[in-house]
Design goal:
Layout (H helix, E strand, L loop, with lengths): L16 E4 L23 E6 L16 H10 L4 E3 L5 E3 L4 E8 L2 E7 L13 H12 L9 E2 L5 E3 L11 H4 L6 E2 L5 E5 L20 H9 L4 H13 L3 H13 L19 E7 L3 E6 L13 E6 L3 H10 L4 E2 L5 H8 L4 E16 L16 H14 L2 H9 L21 H8 L1 H5 L4 H11 L6 E5 L5 H16 L3 E4 L5 H4 L7 E8 L8 H4 L13 H12 L3 H17 L3 E14 L24
Parallel strand pairs: 2-13, 2-14, 16-17, 16-18
Antiparallel strand pairs: 1-18, 3-4, 5-6, 6-10, 7-8, 9-10, 11-12, 12-13, 14-19, 15-18, 15-19
GO molecular function, one term: peptide transmembrane transporter activity
GO cellular component, one term: periplasmic space
InterPro entries: Peptide/Ni-bd, SBP_5, SBP_5_dom
Length: about 600
């Protein structure tokens, strides 16, 4: 099966979505001593999250996950960031971005003198050029590569294969203009791009070119490494780029403190000093950080635990000071019963959905019916019709938010200006409503399949809410004539796109407000298109959306995309995540935000 190109989990890229296991949890106990850290304003905080960190490069299709994005964000700078009001803020102590030409579109990135990697190496053109080359997909010489069971690239057969491809960056074809000091980089787009301001500007600094070169090309000092990267990209040196891509794809993956601490080099105010597999990760303030986001705390420890009630218990016991557990009625009730705790409960930016797999010889793949696309579509539609969306919302979500409703859009949040228009145009509500097992049974009979289709449903193992959703889906779908197999996995996010499941249940969380954010989810070969969906008309619509600046036409385009998704049985949206952020009243300046990096966005302002 072809695994998609990208972040997002959307890499957690601009104009992308990131995978969300739900939200955070934690593990009790002491965090360990760690290495030498810097000095913030004083104080230490422990946070609980529900999935362990596993990569310093969160821009590949296998690592595009909010759990990575949060940590990478605290260890790195970026040109811009979102505040709690979703307003894009400039981080001028790191650099600036400006449009210097409208036709053709040219964008200049300028790094400040304070922009340095934590080993003292200046951030410059080599780093930005590497980020563009890797994440654009323009230098790949093969469409995909061999992957392991978790979706990580194992072997590209000597070809160039960066495991990423952001549509916006793909519009930059030519090597950029670079100033003599390497601090100013100007990219020219082949056509207008509505979301240029979030291209290469939010989330992180990428990975350091000189460290990638040292590992991939066996270079010496930083200057030699930077030059090697620039030369390889400018000359399209396939032999060297293949080696660079191999390291970029996998070299930053880790489950504990790496032996090579160069892999932890970042540009931000925090550095990793301890990482115990599956338990906790410790960040400490850097003494030598020169930017504006100097942290008030000296240490932030992120603890890991899938169990939301364990997170609540740890908060009550004072083992952690901040949690964002998967919300259930029991969790909310338990949080509200704790003295000395502030609680913020609201709908978040993550939405729950079911996606189907089109290209794995499974029940939704035309290949299973001798290439009969209509029969495969009928089976897809019957399964989606069987999903009891109304019962899922009533039983699981409304106990947390009595105003909760089914989400009926793949691209719009309920209540947003274009939501009602797009929903009406797509027909999703009329087509699937709250779910109807009897209607689904009739549809399956009309499809004329010989035996009950076996549907392997992938979701996060140990995730209480997803387990509840799975049981409701299984009960309803089996009434309709399907056999639903529990394919839950602790490595669900890495498993996405491996072809060993037929439907997936997870959440997407936004990383930006870009209008093209959903592109990678539905475009043919898109990085977040894990189910192999392919539709030429959808691709053309996203091509148009990239250059469209009229908000009214943008909404029309997204509406047309959504109608095709409904008509083709792509998948089904379920609900907007209700989120609970709870924290000690001794912890100040926590301001939850609805896009990644969520509550971590202003970590430098936290105080104890």
């Amino acid at each position: 099966m072809k695994r998609g190109i990208l972040t997002a989990a959307a890499g957690v890229a601009a104009s992308a979505l990131v995978l969300s296991a739900c939200t955070p949890p934690g593990d009790g106990g002491n965090g360990g001593n760690g290495g030498d850290g810097g000095n913030g304003g004083g104080g230490e905080v422990s946070v609980m999250w529900n999935q362990p960190f596993y990569s310093m490069n969160n821009n590949t299709s296998a690592t595009n996950n909010v759990t990575n994005a949060n940590v990478v964000y605290m260890m790195n700078e970026a040109f811009k960031y979102y505040d709690e009001n979703l307003e894009l803020q400039d981080n001028t102590s790191f650099g600036t971005v400006e449009q210097v030409s409208e036709d053709p579109l040219k964008v200049k990135y300028t790094y400040s003198d304070n922009a340095k990697w934590s080993d003292g190496t200046p951030v410059d053109a080599a780093d930005l050029v590497l980020a563009w080359a890797a994440r654009s997909g323009n230098f790949n010489t093969t469409e995909d590569a061999e992957r392991d069971d978790e979706g990580v690239v194992e072997d590209a057969g000597g070809d160039v294969f960066f495991d990423a491809a952001e549509p916006g960056l793909a519009l930059i074809k030519d090597f950029p203009e670079i100033s003599e000091d390497g601090k100013e980089i100007t990219f020219e787009y082949t056509k207008p791009f509505a979301d240029w301001e979030t291209n290469l500007t939010i989330g992180d600094s990428g990975v350091p070119a000189h460290i990638v070169a040292k590992n991939a090309l066996d270079t010496g000092d930083a200057e030699e490494g930077k030059k090697a990267i620039l030369d390889a990209v400018e000359n399209e040196d396939k032999e060297k780029l293949a080696k660079v891509a191999e390291f970029w794809n996998t070299g930053y993956n880790m489950t504990s403190m790496p032996e090579d601490e160069d892999l932890l080099i970042g540009t931000g105010p925090m550095k990793m000093t301890d990482f115990k597999e599956g338990q906790y990760l410790t960040l400490e303030a850097r003494d030598d950080y020169e930017g504006d986001r100097k942290p008030q705390l000296s240490k932030i420890t992120v603890r890991y635990n899938e169990d939301p009630m364990a997170a609540v218990q740890a908060l009550e016991n004072g083992e952690v000071q901040l949690i964002n557990p998967q919300s259930t009625a029991d969790v909310l009730q338990a949080v509200e019963a704790i003295d000395g705790v502030e609680n913020n409960t609201a709908d978040g930016a993550t939405y729950e959905h079911v996606d189907l797999t089109f290209d794995n010889n499974g029940p939704f793949d035309p290949a299973s019916y001798g290439g009969d696309e209509e029969k495969a579509k009928q089976v897809r539609e019957a399964f989606l019709q069987s999903i009891p969306r109304g019962k899922i919302v009533n039983d699981i979500v409304k106990p947390l938010n009595d105003q909760a409703q089914i989400r009926n859009s793949f691209t719009q949040v309920p209540g947003s200006p274009d939501y009602d228009t797009i929903v009406q145009g797509s027909g999703i509500e009329d087509t699937y409503g709250e779910g109807d097992a009897e209607k689904a049974k009739q549809m399956l009979e009309e499809a004329g399949v010989d035996e009950a289709p076996k549907v392997r449903l992938l979701y996060a193992k140990g995730n209480a809410r997803r387990e509840q959703e799975f049981q409701l889906i299984k009960e309803s779908a089996e009434k309709a004539g399907f056999e639903v197999i529990d394919n839950s996995s602790e490595t669900w996010s890495e498993d996405l796109g491996n072809g060993e499941y037929d439907a997936s249940l997870f959440g997407w969380q936004s990383t930006s407000t870009a209008v093209t954010e959903s592109d990678a989810n539905f475009r043919t070969g898109g990085q977040n298109n894990f189910g192999g969906f392919a539709n030429d008309e959808v691709d053309k619509l996203y091509d148009e959306l990239q250059t469209e600046t009229d908000p009214a036409r943008q909404a029309e385009i997204l509406g047309e995309v959504e109608k095709i998704l409904v008509d083709e049985g792509f998948g089904l949206t379920l609900f907007q995540f209700p989120e609970v952020v709870a924290y000690s009243d001794q912890l100040q300046n926590v301001k939850p935000m609805t896009v990644s990096p969520t509550m971590f966005w202003n970590f430098w302002e936290w105080q104890m």
